[in-house]
Amino acid sequence: MKVMEEIKLMKGNEAIAHAAIRCGCDGYFGYPITPQSEVMETLMQEKPWETTGMVVLQAESEVAAINMVYGGAGCGKKVLTSSSSPGVSLKQEGISYIACAELPCLIVNVMRGGPGLGTIQPSQADYFQAVKGGGHGDYKLIVLAPSSVQEMADFTVLALDLAFKYNTPSMLLADGIVGQMMEKVVLPPFVPRRTEEEIRQQCPWATTGKVNRKSNVITSLALQAEEMEETNLRLQRKYAQIVENEVRFEEVQCDDADYILVAFGSCARVGEKVVELARNEGIKLGLLRPITLWPFPTKKIQRLAKQVKGFMSLELSAGQMVEDVRLAVNGTVPVEFYGRQGGVVPLAEETLAALKEKLVK
Amino acid sequence: MTAKEIIKPENLVYTKTKVMTDVPMHYCPGCSHGVIHKLIAEAIEEMGIQEKTIGVAPVGCSVFAYNYLDVDFQEAAHGRAPAVATAIKRLQPDKCVFTYQGDGDLAAIGTAETIHTCNRGENIVIFFINNAIYGMTGGQMAPTTLEGMKTSTCPYGRNTDIYGFPLKISDLLAELDGTCYVTRQSVHKVGNIVKAKKAIKKALQNSMDGKGTSVVEFVSSCNSGWKMSPHKANLWMEENMFAKYPLGDLKDTEKKHYGQ
Predict the structure, then answer these.
(1) In chain B, what are the domains?
(2) pTM of model > 0.90
(3) What is the mean pLDDT, run by run of 10 residues, along chain A of 361 residues?
(4) Do A69 and A193 share a domain, yes or no?
(5) Yes or no, beta carbons of B75 and A220 under 8 Å apart
(6) What residues make up the domain containing A348?
(7) DSSP H stretches of helix in A32-117
């Protein structure tokens, strides 16, 4: 019997909620903030505690929510939280603790314009915060950037898988467009939540109760400098492995390109149109879409730098990812930037005009 | 009678609980933490819940509680222990979950987490050590520092015009519908130790029975921070701390159960 794929129409935020239930999440902890409140609203509507047993809890603040994630992840449970820019700033302390304690979890940031209370319109201005650490200390998050509703669902599953593969927090860095727009989506298949026994096997470090073993302690504290340095070195070894294994990107017509537009998330959707318009005018433009913002596709950009005349980074910010493109290119060819800020989204036409002015001379 | 004849199992009247590790404690002589740790450990052993208990340590002097109590532990960020404990208990409802927090952790930086955890009636226990001072960072003013009391950040005494008033947080928590048991104890005398242990057991049982949040406050001394001898600190505590924070049950009832 042929099983028909069930295609649904929904918002990106809703897709995250459905994907979380389906991939066997044990808990969600969040605090309302626009433009991502549909994540928790959908979960509450679906009431998965009656079906899969997943816990959904509205916390008193983003600070409490991320610390609930810490507590749940420390039990080896599959847990996530979601928020938007100001809320994610509040979570940074907790994320730093989670990274240091080496706990797997997912943090979703559906970015909006900042700084400060900013706007509720889409932005990508939390790129630095997401990929450079965000909180205190030397740590990294695995950062995935979805550019469609389908990827909101798929990357929820992938980000949690990667988090458990490396015992490290991962982040879905989306924006208000991807969160709010409605598209067709095929939801991931249902996977049952892990049993207590499976969790004990998979996460022998978790606080599941001291049964026939030494007591487990989840902590990020070391009073001795040498001990803390060892923790740092262990983290760095892990991050090196992630850089080696987990870089993901998508190329659109890069093979014969003279110029490369680099864009992630919703900007990459604009970028596809820019490529089309440019090619209509005889400009050989390609699009490189980093899917993992950390680890960044540095080597891919270095390879492209040998064949093209220049890059332009397109972002909903004052220019953040462009710094990583420049680090990769290392001065061999020009790297320009175009972006809009504060919630304004660039049109394909104005982007092409900027490309011609800055790069194609 | 020889020593060999005396050292027999049937003559044993006291032994260290196996829920305490052999790690030497870092607490100052005269500090209340050691006694409270021991009482919690004994309660866990006597109730047979060592395999089911998960503790959450705070930031403060008792940050290393996990080195002394031999159960699974999570070390929380400053003030966030009740949020951490909330998730542990919600995701593992068969476990006995407690936080162990000082006055700065619970009643200053973590006030929101404390109140909302209690207000949700999370089935956890909050052990609250109130010694009216920040011990670990060197004796700064705490939310519970008494009026007129000198600390390194109120060196001329807590003037309420400048610093506000000592916070009776347990009284506040007793008002919340989610708490089932709020009590104030001390461990400075044998009689108080016996009562405190009963309170600890009752609170842990409440967590197992799903009755709501239990709060056990221990009015404690910090002789190092107070700059007194242990004996003098206890006398000062009786005279001054108990006047502001009187011992006894503030609330003992099952939480209100609302229909779905």
Answers:
(1) 26-252 (3.40.50.970)
(2) yes
(3) 78 98 98 98 98 98 98 98 98 98 98 96 98 96 98 98 98 98 97 97 98 97 95 98 98 98 98 98 98 98 98 98 98 98 96 97 78
(4) yes
(5) yes
(6) 250-358
(7) 38-46, 62-74, 85-101
